[in-house]
Amino acid sequence: MDMREARYGLGQVVKHRMFPFRGVIFDVDAEFSNTEDWWLAIPEPVRPRKDQPYYHLLAENEQGFYIAYVSEQNLLPDDTGEPVGHPKTSQLFSRFEGGSYQLRPHSAH
User: Which one of 14, 26, 78, 80 has the fewest CB atoms closer than 10 angstroms to its CB?
Assistant: First the structure.
């Protein structure tokens, strides 16, 4: 299988193509890396392909904050220029500038 480069990067703010939520990317899997049960729980007509990047998001919607796992085909860039309100953004990112977040440097032990 050909591995392709992820379209979106760490710290980028994105929104879901079909559902009303947005978030900031904090990790990327080159291809699907969740459980088969999780994947099968998605209704077949809207179930995404496994052979694409999947993104871990600090997500928000009108009901609150959560972690989302989303296929690349279901994401779009968020062009609001607004930061994400998820309370964990400050743990992973140092600042929000120019529409995206800057990752905090990690210290090795």
Answer: 80
How far CA 20 is from CA of 33, 72, 92, in Å, comes to 24, 16, 23
First-last CA distance in the chain: 36
Per-residue pLDDT of 57-75, as tens digits, reads 999 999 999 999 999 999 9
Length in residues, the chain: 109
For 43, half-sphere exposure in the C-beta direction (CA atoms, 13 angstrom radius) is 2
Q: Where are the alpha helices (DSSP H) in 11-100?
A: 36-40, 89-92
Q: How far apart are CA 92 and CA 35, in angstroms?
A: 25
| Helices marked H in the chain | 36-40, 89-92
What is the pTM assigned to this prediction? 0.91
The DSSP call for residue 5 is: -
Residues 47, 20: contact at Cβ < 8 Å?
A: no
Q: Quick check: 109 pLDDT over 90?
A: no
